[in-house]
Design a protein that fits this description.
With 368 residues, the chain is mainly α.
């Protein structure tokens, strides 16, 4: 989640004068009130930060918190020393916000479209959501969009990156995860500081997801742990594949010459099909594992499908690029940055070519 970078603008505007502040805000796509809540939420987060070292050294602090933070610091040091990620104060601080999520993102689409309602911000560029630091504000914004006939989805977010503009802390919401997931998210968010391309969410998230996955693999190896059991990962990928297949069918439906009434019927039928296919997969292959039941049984709409595919669309392409770079992180970052400098269409073609090379390599390996 990146819109909190508006606080950078507010801070610079204070130093440069009120006219600049008004110009930046009024030229944006959001209201003054929206920017104010972003600034206020980020300011609260900054004020809540404490140095992790001081918490670990304080005998009065919770021993479990100290243990988790100590391990997080080992992963943080590994990220810079072994993965070549930025070496700064991010994730060397801790903030307890006294809530389960740091922000709530609101996604929206038209009733018969999968194109997201986008929002553009200085520095961060355009993204497919708006972030709110209060759940009530997020729900209120979603309700207003529904009154306009849009599909909406509100998602709680445990962590985000400010791309190095601030020293991002470990948050209490991140400690809900196990130790490995916590380390992985630190790698992921630092990767956003390493490289970020405006207006290309799939590129940014796929890049960070590859760094997260490969970083976690190397982190486990450094600690002498066995390779992860990938049963859970396979289930997640199978679930995502179901969602993406459903989304592709909906895209065909919405692009068809059918009447709006027929499209609405087809939309309802597609969501019923998705639920049915999920239950078959769960009961026949997963032996009744119900980890995704809450998501699938809650109301479904176009907006709820938006986040899927963004985080892993180009991961195999970055894996191929890492192999081409000789598994050298500095060279990998150089090549990734060069991709990011390409025009959008050229960048997609280059990533697609890397995907093809990844498939060829996988086939050759399986044939041996």
């Amino acid at each position: 989640m990146l819109p909190t970078l508006s606080l950078v603008i507010l801070d610079r505007a204070r130093r440069c004068g009120v006219p600049l502040l008004l110009g930046l805000l009024l030229s944006g796509c959001s209201s003054l009130d929206y920017y104010a809540q972003l600034a206020g939420g980020q300011w609260q987060l900054l004020q809540a930060r404490e140095p992790v070292g001081a918490i670990i050294a304080d005998p009065a602090r919770d021993p479990q918190l100290q243990r988790r933070l100590a391990l997080a610091q080992q992963a943080r040091s590994f990220a810079s020393a072994q993965l070549g990620l930025p070496d700064n104060r991010s994730y060397r601080l801790y903030a307890d916000l006294q809530r389960p999520y740091v922000v709530w993102n609101v996604f929206a689409t038209a009733e018969l479209s999968l194109a997201p309602l986008t929002h553009c911000f200085p520095i961060a560029g355009c993204v497919a959501y708006r972030g709110f630091y209060q759940q009530g504000r997020a729900r209120g914004a979603a309700a207003l969009l529904r009154q306009e006939g849009l599909d909406t989805y509100v998602a709680g977010i445990e962590a985000y990156s400010t791309l190095g503009w601030f020293d991002d802390p470990i948050l209490n919401s991140m400690l809900r995860w196990d130790d490995e997931r916590l380390a992985a998210v630190i790698f992921h968010e630092l990767a956003h500081q390493q490289l970020y391309v405006q207006d290309d969410t799939a590129f940014n998230e796929s890049f960070a997801s590859f760094v997260e996955q490969e970083g976690l693999r190397q982190w486990r190896a450094r600690r002498g742990l066995p390779a992860q059991d990938d049963a859970g990962e396979r289930q997640k990928q199978q679930f995502i594949a179901l969602i993406l297949a459903s989304r592709a069918r909906l895209e065909q439906l919405y692009a068809s010459p059918r009447s709006d009434a027929a499209k609405r019927q087809g939309k309802a039928a597609e969501f019923a099909r998705l639920r049915s296919e999920y239950r078959q997969l769960r009961d026949r292959q997963w032996r009744g594992d119900r980890r995704f039941d809450a998501w699938i049984n809650a109301p479904l709409n176009n907006a709820k499908l938006l986040p899927f595919g963004l985080y892993d669309r180009w991961v195999p392409a970055f894996a191929a690029l890492f192999a081409q770079a000789g598994s050298d992180w500095a060279e990998f970052y150089r090549r990734s940055s060069a991709l990011g400098e390409l025009a959008a269409d050229e960048r997609k073609r280059a990533l697609a070519a890397l995907m093809d090379s990844s498939r060829v390599s996988s086939y050759a390996a399986s044939a041996r």
